[in-house]
């Protein structure tokens, strides 16, 4: 059975200590919707000043207003430092100048950038055969190059001299990503890039980790997939070990742990939050009969059947 996701924030409460991030400044890219919104809400409810940024500022403004209402309520209920969500300038992470402008704006305004979550990203469903070079590049530039732009600008402008914690969101790419070759390649690139950065930036006390979600029910995410979204519901969902998708809050919880000092010895790691899906075959693609293909050596008769 498909689990209905109640997005009413009053039902949800962070498991972490109130005021955990009091006085901290965070940036969550793509924080105006879905998983990023959940991460921004949790960080704000734990006392951080959270800048959210993406291309659509109007969407971010509406989301920030709702998140701040929840944060105010949560903090007055639990007596913690009041965090807040603010909206940065319109930014496409693909554009290096726009990213530099965003980071400079944050440092000028808030004088710090302690925490960074590279959540912005996405892709479309398309077979490798039909994918144009421009389409491949659009997705790689958004996810991989965009994440690099933000990491580097945060490091150069603040974290090199002050330390920090970075979490990059990837996706379940362990078995490849049939019909999403661009995104699978980009996310694998992000994970390897994060290992490299964790070593290069160790001496600056900058930790770099990844959270690799399985399938998460987010309205905007599923709208984007059309018929492929139906395939996720009809075919992938019953094959998942947990028989349900993740909630955005289950992803956010792992991100918050990695950002926190409780993960001070964790860097260069990838945390899968996928209900065990990575170790269970998911039929992302139907592979046609292969019995006409040549075989090397002698195939026992029974194995042919
Ligand atoms: C355990 C398994 C886990 C699997 C989990 C998988 C679930 C994942 C869920 C999510 O990630 S949810 C998040 C969803 N949100 C999004 O994906 C939204 C973000 N998407 C975008 O911003 C854009 O789609 C894009 C991917 C960045 C492309 O943006 P851009 O504006 O640059 O594209 P265009 O200029 O329109 O096109 C460039 C190029 O790409 C081709 N193209 C675009 N869409 C398609 C398509 N649907 N099919 C085929 N090709 C497409 C387009 O044709 C252009 O190429 P040319 O035709 O000019 O050669
Ligand atoms: N939902 C799922 O099942 C899974 C999602 N993920 C990943 O998690 C992240 C969040 O996804 P989700 O919340 O589901 O989906 P959303 O579509 O809600 O989030 C994607 C966010 O990225 C922003 N974004 C996209 N392109 C750019 C860009 N070029 N520059 C700046 N911001 C951009 C969007 O804002 P705007 O349009 O305003 O720019 C949007 O807020 C994505 O990276 C996604 O691929 C990973 C695994 C599974």
Automatic annotation (TrEMBL):
The keyword Transferase does not apply. It catalyses: (2E)-decenoyl-CoA + NADPH + H(+) = decanoyl-CoA + NADP(+); (2E)-hexenoyl-CoA + NADPH + H(+) = hexanoyl-CoA + NADP(+); (2E)-tetradecenoyl-CoA + NADPH + H(+) = tetradecanoyl-CoA + NADP(+); a (2E)-enoyl-CoA + NADPH + H(+) = a 2,3-saturated acyl-CoA + NADP(+). InterPro entries: NAD(P)-bd_dom_sf (IPR036291), Peroxisomal_t2-enoyl-CoA_red (IPR052388), SDR_fam (IPR002347). One of its GO terms (biological process) is fatty acid biosynthetic process. It is found in: Peroxisome. GO terms for molecular function: trans-2-enoyl-CoA reductase (NADPH) activity. The keyword Transmembrane helix does not apply. One of its GO terms (cellular component) is peroxisome. Pathway: Lipid metabolism. Gene3D superfamilies: NAD(P)-binding Rossmann-like Domain. Its EC number is 1.3.1.38. Its main location: other. Interacts with PEX5, probably required to target it into peroxisomes. Participates in chain elongation of fatty acids. Catalyzes the reduction of trans-2-enoyl-CoAs of varying chain lengths from 6:1 to 16:1, having maximum activity with 10:1 CoA. Has no 2,4-dienoyl-CoA reductase activity. This is Peroxisomal trans-2-enoyl-CoA reductase. It comes from Skeletonema marinoi.
């Amino acid at each position: 059975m498909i689990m209905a996701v109640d997005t009413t924030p009053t039902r949800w409460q962070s498991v972490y200590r109130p005021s955990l991030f009091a006085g901290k400044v965070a940036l969550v890219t793509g924080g105006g919707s879905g998983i990023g919104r959940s991460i921004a809400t949790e960080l704000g409810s734990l006392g951080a000043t959270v800048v959210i940024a993406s291309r659509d500022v109007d969407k971010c403004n509406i989301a920030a207003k709702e998140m701040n209402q929840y944060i105010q309520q949560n903090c007055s209920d639990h007596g913690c430092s009041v965090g807040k969500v603010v909206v940065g300038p319109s930014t496409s992470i693909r554009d290096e100048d726009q990213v530099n402008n965003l980071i400079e704006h944050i440092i000028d305004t808030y004088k710090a950038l302690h925490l960074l979550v590279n959540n912005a990203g996405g892709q479309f469903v398309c077979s490798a055969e039909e994918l144009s070079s421009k389409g491949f590049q659009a997705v790689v530039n958004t996810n991989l190059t965009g994440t690099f732009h933000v990491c580097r600008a945060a490091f150069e402008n603040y974290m090199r001299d002050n330390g920090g914690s970075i979490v990059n969101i990837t996706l379940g790419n362990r078995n490849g990503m049939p019909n999403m070759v661009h995104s699978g390649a980009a996310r694998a690139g992000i994970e390897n890039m994060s290992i490299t950065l964790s070593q290069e930036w160790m001496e600056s006390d900058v930790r770099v980790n990844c959270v690799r979600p399985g399938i998460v029910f987010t309205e905007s995410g599923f709208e984007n997939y059309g018929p492929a979204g139906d395939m996720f519901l009809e075919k992938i969902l019953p094959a998942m070990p947990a028989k349900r998708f993740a909630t955005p809050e289950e992803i956010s919880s792992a991100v918050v742990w990695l950002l926190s000092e409780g993960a001070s010895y964790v860097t260069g790691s990838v945390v899968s939050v996928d209900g065990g899906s990575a170790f269970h075959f998911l039929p992302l693609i139907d592979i046609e009969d292969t019995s006409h293909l040549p075989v090397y050596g002698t195939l026992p008769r029974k194995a042919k059947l």
